[in-house]
Design brief:
Aminopeptidase, 7 helices, about 25% helix, about 30% strand, binds coenzyme A, Acetyltransferase (GNAT) family protein
């Protein structure tokens, strides 16, 4: 909430700012920050995960946030439609389509629900997008874990940095001109597992409030299925606890069952599901 002599601006969760004349306000009370927990709503969790990977631009449309990052990752180049767009759906979709096209990007929303075939707001939005010809992409899950229940840390020779250096970037050689800017769009810790001076595995961890958001876990293809992925994830969870996080989340695609198995074996459970809806033509 912001205030001056004449007006008060309130920022309700899931909506854009609301401005009131000061004379209309009788009582003001400081509200503690909302704590997001593994039992919190899908919208709360989407807002949290967005902060760990926001992209280089975030534009508000009511409660919806439009993320852009030069096209690197759908997560950073999609609208996250939490709360209310505060305009009719077709107007909101036209607005976001124009905004993405203006940036040379494909119009895209990340649609999330516990059950995307049910009647939650995310599922109803999904059905409305399907009816308008928006195509699905990358069905995925957000998984969470309570770090107090995490396995203990085996000794793992990790190096940590708060920037993605060349060695870290080299473990996953995917090239994109906006990769570094999108990674750096949230404060994060970068872990690199070095063996004999060579990087064999890497990961990223964004700390947001009480949460650690794990991403970019990758093991050298020649060394997979040797326990590096498990040991690195456990070490990252231990580091997250040291940094004060209570819970961790990550996002994993349905087409990656080996990573899902790894995360399930470490106690991660599905919080909600999401996929993208894109306007292809
Ligand atoms: C996912 C990934 C990080 C796993 O790393 P890894 O070092 O091969 O994994 P580990 O050897 O530690 O295996 C841990 C568990 O993962 C699962 N797993 C890993 N590879 C698997 C495979 N090829 N088939 C089935 N399960 C597999 C198993 O449950 C395994 O436990 P187990 O060996 O006791 O059965 C690695 O495959 C990778 O870099 N993939 C490409 C990038 C990626 O998908 N990252 C995750 C993004 S969310």
């Amino acid at each position: 909430m912001l205030s001056d002599q004449e007006r008060v601006v309130v920022l309700p969760a899931g909506r854009g700012p609301v401005e009131l004349p000061r004379s209309a306000v009788q009582v003001m009370r400081r509200v503690p920050p909302r704590v997001v927990r593994p039992t919190s709503s899908v919208d709360d969790m989407v807002r949290l995960t967005s902060r760990g990977w926001p992209g280089t631009e975030v534009v508000r449309m009511g409660g919806w946030s439009l993320h852009a990052g030069g096209g690197y990752s759908r997560r950073a180049n999609s609208c996250h439609p939490t709360g209310d767009a505060e305009r009719p759906l077709d107007e909101a979709l036209d607005g976001l389509s124009a905004s993405y096209r203006h940036r040379g990007l494909r119009p895209c929303l990340q649609v999330a629900a516990r059950d995307l075939t049910g009647d939650e707001p995310g599922a109803l939005l999904d059905a409305a997008l399907a009816a308008r010809g928006w195509h699905t992409a990358t069905p995925s899950s957000v998984m969470t874990v309570d770090l107090r229940a995490a396995p203990s840390d085996p000794p793992t020779p990790l190096e940590w940095s708060t920037t993605p250096g060349d060695i870290w970037l080299g473990v996953d050689p995917s090239q994109h001109p906006d990769r570094v800017e999108v990674l750096a769009s949230a404060d994060a810790h970068y872990s690199t597992w070095l063996t004999g001076g060579r990087a064999v595995a890497a990961g990223r961890m964004a700390i947001t409030d009480d949460w650690a958001g794990l991403s970019c876990l990758v093991v050298d293809p020649a060394l997979r299925r040797n326990g590096h992925g498990r040991a690195l994830t456990i070490a990252m969870m231990a580091r997250a606890r040291e940094l004060g996080a209570r819970w961790a989340y990550l996002q994993v695609a349905d087409e990656n069952p080996r990573a899902q198995r790894l995360y399930e074996s470490l106690g991660f459970r599905v919080h909600h599901r999401y996929h993208y809806r894109e306007l292809v033509s």
